[in-house]
Amino acid sequence: MDWAGWALFGLVATAALTAAMITAQLAGLTRLDLPLVLGAFVTEDPDRARVVGFFLHLGAGQGFALGYAATFALLDRANWWIGGLFGIVHVGIALTVILPLLPGVHPRMASQRAGPASRAVLEPPGLFALNYGIQTPLVTAVVHVIYGACLGLLLQAR
């Protein structure tokens, strides 16, 4: 397995994905603020949550990059289109399983059934994270496919 590539390129790809998501959010293409969502697990302060969440997302991205690298090694093949396919699977799981389950474990996120008495500060993402805007699934899919394609180009299959 390409350990050096994983260590470097996993970090680069994750930083690029996170920066693209933040840019899309600031440009009004989505309301999904992933660093805030992740960091709010740890702290109530939104500014600190964004910083902590950025680093949590880098760590999670390294974990996913390890999975990509291991799969490339098992296939004995790595290229941009296989990485892009992995990105489609990755974002599919994120949008249909991981994000919809967050309200069940996130201490500061409302559930779909939260009423007016809820003290949650984050709204639930819903299926495909559509509660964060109609373009959210597309933006999220594009950046994850690019993430996978970059890893497919940069990582060695050895």
UniProtKB/TrEMBL annotation:
The transmembrane segments are 51-75, 82-102, 132-155
Q: Keywords, A to Z?
A: Membrane, Transmembrane, Transmembrane helix
Lineage, top-rank taxon, reads Bacteria
Q: What name is this protein filed under?
A: DUF1440 domain-containing protein
What organism, scientifically named, is this protein from? Micromonospora arborensis
